[in-house]
Amino acid sequence: MRRIYAFTFVVLMLLSGLIHKLFFEKMEFIQSKVYPNLYLVKYPIEDRDSLNKSIKNKVLQDMNNQFVWNKNNIEENRIRFYVYTTAWGFSNGTKHFIENKEDPGGFSSEELDNYQEQKMAYFELKQCKNDSLNYLGNLIYFKDGLEFNSEILIDDCKENHLN
Question: Hey, where are the domains in the chain?
Fold first, then answer.
């Protein structure tokens, strides 16, 4: 009889976990409050093509709403996407960067470079060579910290040369 109860308990736990994942864990982009060009992706969808399409749509949405070329600060001409993670071990997880800037010094150093495995995508807008009015925008996708695909979203350069 105990085996039946134990089995039933395990099945109910697995079923409740599945229901939670299917109906309550929706993918969302969380924008950092200290780095407006940083998004953490909470509950990323598993289908890579759909995930990349969602990231691309977010970049295009930002391009239309707020993204403005700043030739004095290259950091502002990019948009970064990382998987949302919470604290584990000696790390605070990527969640740390929602409210906090990178802290490169000391015992508890926290930098985005420490989370290369969680890097999902990187968009960069560059000025065309000898043409300050046109741009090239490249979106690079990462998997397990390594670049695996890219696509050009904006190509206004006449000769495809960059500064």
Answer: 26-155
What is the widest separation between alpha-carbon atoms in the chain? 80
Which helix (H) or strand (E) is 151 found in, with range? strand 146-155
Could you give the CA distance from residue 123 to residue 141 in angstroms, rounded to a whole number? 9
Residues with Cβ < 8 Å from 107, sequence gap 6 or more? none
Report helix, strand and coil shares of the chain as percent, to nearest 5: 35, 35, 35
What is the reported pTM? 0.78
Q: What is the mean pLDDT of each run of 10 residues along the chain (163 residues)?
A: 73 60 76 94 94 94 67 69 86 90 80 92 87 85 93 81 51
Q: Measure the CA–CA gap between 80 and 59, rounded to whole angstroms.
A: 9
